[in-house]
Amino acid sequence: MLKKAGVLFFLLFIEGAALMAVEMMGAKFLAPFFGNSLYVWTAVLAFTTLGLTLGYYYGGKLSIKSQKEKILISIFFVASLLVALMPFSSSWLISLSSSLGLMYGICISSLLLISPLMFCFGLVGPISVSASANEVNSIGKTAGRTYFISTFGGILSTFFFGFYAIPTLGLSLSAWITASALAGVPILFLLFRGLNKNDITVSSIQESTVENKPQKVDRKKATQYSPKFNRNIFLFAIVEGFVVMAIEIFAARMIAPYFGSSLYVWGAVIGITLTGLALGYYIGGLLGDKFNTGL
Fold it and tell me: Was domain 5-208+230-290 assigned CATH 1.20.1250?
């Protein structure tokens, strides 16, 4: 089922949209206790990134599993429950750490409220890339397209929740809208499975037959297409991530003297940041396949 592009794109779009909705709501849940300062947004961004980082890492490990569809359904189901509970759990979680002082309170609250959800969202990308990649030579394009769709959903969600839903509808309704969208993914998967039960059964039998059938391995070809592990890549990735977050925070502070530090300002900054990242993911994927130099 995950091989169908439309299904996978829908899944990634919802994941990206929910990710940014949770980030925006997380900052607003913290605001009554800690204000709407740079410290709050810095902690929200940092622990959003922490959760995604761990999710990306463990998502890579899960991506080698055979039952990717069941794993993704479980992730979306758990995420929908956690988001639905945010209006009820946020005050309790934040009150636990509010007595620790401003800095520690903001950091612990952000960690407890946001990071578990971001971990769930981070799992989705690597599993989706693995499920949709057909061959090694197209991994760059597949990864670029995957993160483009997810980030595009995040762009629309940022402007929708930052400029309309949260200020107009409130946090509770915004959380339930997000939870409903996430819960809709496993529901649609199960309905789709029921409508195509025969196709899935045949497909599963064929996959099982192929997996159990001994296959000859062309060692020369395997060596040719085997990706080389190079620790230098980590340096590029660390610097890139550091600079992206720094630019995002700098931009918000530069705009603040003219427009303040409201949700609208942060929504615009984050939305524009995501727009640039989305284009970079897509074009970077194409360039990665074209200029595969194995750094």
Answer: yes
